[in-house]
Amino acid sequence: MKELELKYGCNPNQKPARIFMQQGELPLTVLNGKPGYINFMDALNSWQLVKSLKKATGLACAASFKHVSPAGAALGTELTDVEKQIYFADGCDTSPIARAYIKARGADRLCSYGDWAALSEICDEPTARFLAMEVSDGVIAPGYTDAALEILKDKKKGNYNVVQMDPTYEPAPIELRHIYGITFQQGYNNFEINEDLLNNLVTQNRDLPQQAKHDLLLALITLKYTQSNSVCYVKNGQTIGVGAGQQSRIHCTRLAGSKADNWMLRQHPKVLGLQFLDGIRRPNRDNAIDVYISNEWEDVLADGVWQETFKVKPEPLTPEEKKAWIATMKDVALGSDAFFPFGDNVERARKSGVQYIAQPGGSIRDDNVIETADKYGMVMCFTGMRLFHH
């Protein structure tokens, strides 16, 4: 098939719409549903991410995309008991690719609501069963087992979008796009991110263990497919905070850092001990947890609406308790798609437990940035490669 007609473009008024190949056949097949314009943008961006990440690490990996940027991405490493609880995966059968998606989705469950999922491996039954429980628009993978496909075909009253991607497909070396009737051309960004990119260690501390290397690769590859400016925090093989599309570097670092803090706060004993009413759906739990750990909780208590969600009135999580719990974060990795212009980014990153940093370098204030990292005993490497994505 050379082209696929779509219902409309980004918005219902943007017609006609289609995806097509100028030469050859489309490298994808729609197995179920009717994906739209934005669905395919998410699908193809997320597929590039998991394909690159699999090549860099050799591990099963997955991504959760919303509006052409990752809400989360992860490697298929083991889940801790706490992670199973906060990702609502208790009692689920898992496989490496299922764990990868559970962690990618769990990175920022609020932002992953209605996501597009990407899998580096054939979608198996455990992955399909977890997808079936979540609010999601679609999935792209190199293949599906018969059992997995049957499960996914039942989702959303039979309308769940399932796309199979040819894993051998390589894009043309030149990209074209049109903006306001004007054609832009550039070479496809085929820059390969691997461990060689982490060799230029510029700080006094040069202790970069293998886990940190994997985390930095995950951060950098995630950034390669995130709308810029962007910064990404990673811990133990999963993103825990992605700050996308900000106009200043420090705002990226703050946004991603606040998401990383929220990820950590979901593991606080008070949050783990919340008693929800029977029958409360997963998205409602996510929303309630987000409000509970935010500054809005006092308003909820004042309004008295907590009874709609909880069996027992939760004891507030105080600012002092939040600060103390976040302070226990450590060994977090951080990537930036462009250089840090000031040391303030490092200062903010430290507050969320960052120990390892990968960024291009090249600022006129590199000395100040390195000095700030040295002040806290961090490890920082200069990659020499900007990763803007627009």
Q: What is the element layout, followed by pairings?
A:
Elements: E1 3-6, E2 17-20, E3 28-32, H1 37-57, E4 61-66, E5 69-75, H2 81-86, H3 96-106, E6 115-119, H4 125-133, E7 136-141, H5 146-153, E8 161-165, E9 174-179, E10 182-187, H6 210-224, E11 230-235, E12 238-244, H7 249-265, H8 269-272, H9 282-292, H10 297-303, H11 319-326, E13 332-336, H12 344-351, E14 354-359, H13 366-375, E15 379-382
Parallel strand pairs: 6-7, 7-8, 13-14, 14-15
Antiparallel strand pairs: 1-2, 3-8, 4-5, 4-6, 9-10, 11-12, 11-13
Helix pairs in contact: 1-6, 3-4, 4-5, 7-12
Task: Please characterize this protein's 3D structure.
- By secondary structure, the protein is an alpha/beta fold.
- It has 3 domains: 3-165, AICAR transformylase, duplication domain (Cytidine Deaminase, domain 2); 174-265 and 326-382, 3-Layer(aba) Sandwich (Cytidine Deaminase, domain 2); 269-316.
- The protein is 35% helix and 21% strand.
- The chain contains 13 helices and 15 strands.
- The protein has helices spanning 37-57, 81-86, 96-106, 125-133, 146-153, 210-224, 249-265, 269-272, 282-292, 297-303, 319-326, 344-351, 366-375, and strands at 3-6, 17-20, 28-32, 61-66, 69-75, 115-119, 136-141, 161-165, 174-179, 182-187, 230-235, 238-244, 332-336, 354-359, 379-382.
- A 6-stranded mixed β-sheet has the order 3-8-7-6-4-5, with helices on both faces. A 5-stranded mixed β-sheet has the order 12-11-13-14-15, sandwiched between helices.
- Helix 1 runs antiparallel to helix 6 (210-224), helix 3 (96-106) runs parallel beside helix 4 (125-133) and helix 4 runs parallel beside helix 5 (146-153).
- The longest helix has 21 residues, at 37-57.
- The two termini are 28 Å apart.
- The model has no long low-confidence stretch (mean pLDDT 95).
